[in-house]
Amino acid sequence: MRRPNFVGWVSRELRYLSGENTLNLRRLAFLAQNNVPRLWERLVFYTIATCRVDRLKTFLYRDDLAAELDEICEKVGSANFNDPCSAEHLQLPPRYDKVLLSYKAAYRKIDARNASKMLRWEKSVEIQKKKGVSNAQICQALGLDAGNINAYLKYAQIDRVSLEKATDIMKYLYSIRA
Questions:
Q1: Given this model, what pLDDT does residue 146 score?
Q2: pLDDT tens digits, 135-170
Q3: Residues with Cβ < 8 Å from 25, sequence gap 6 or more?
Q4: I need a labelling partner for 163 at 20 to 30 A (CA). Which of 31, 47, 48, 83 fits?
């Protein structure tokens, strides 16, 4: 699992919230001004990150949103959205901060998954040594690739298995009678 970059993440959010598989600024601006209020903040960040603010302004018919767009552009300036920590110092309205917090959560999700896998690895190795189970037995019982399991259990290369497989290994080791 890789960390998301900001433009990719906000693009997925726009497609999801709009219910359409498009990044057409005209269509998204229409939806944001009429039907889907949560779409607006993400659309603003998308246009700032992709340098398309002027194009978005041509599709706005609500003056309040155009003024808000100008205000957010001033505050953001040339912030690097790919690093969620760099955007913490911005003084944005709460609804815009929510969007950045959502991105930060998605960005840090990989750290949480890796921490969970590391905990499972520690417990699995402890149980494996206590019960005397070989890596080959685990691979055969669960139908897993021997190279990945060996790298995971012997060298703690947690990126070689998914969180689900790490959980399966740990459960299997718990279920074995000593």
A1: 94
A2: 999 999 999 999 999 999 999 999 999 999 999 999
A3: 43, 47, 52, 55, 56, 59
A4: 83
> What token pair was written down for 136?
């080959």
H or E segment at 128?
Answer: helix 94-131
Q: Looking at residue 35, what DSSP letter applies?
A: T
How far is it, in rounded angstroms, from Cα 77 to Cα 53? 12
Of 49, 47, 81, 50, nearest to 66 by C-alpha is: 47
Closest by Cα among 115, 109, 44, 111 to 81 = 44
The rounded distance, in Å, linking the Cα atoms of 31 and 26 is 9
Amino acid residing at 1: M
Instruction: Report d(CA 57, CA 138) in Å as an integer.
Output: 59
CA distance 163 to 157: 12
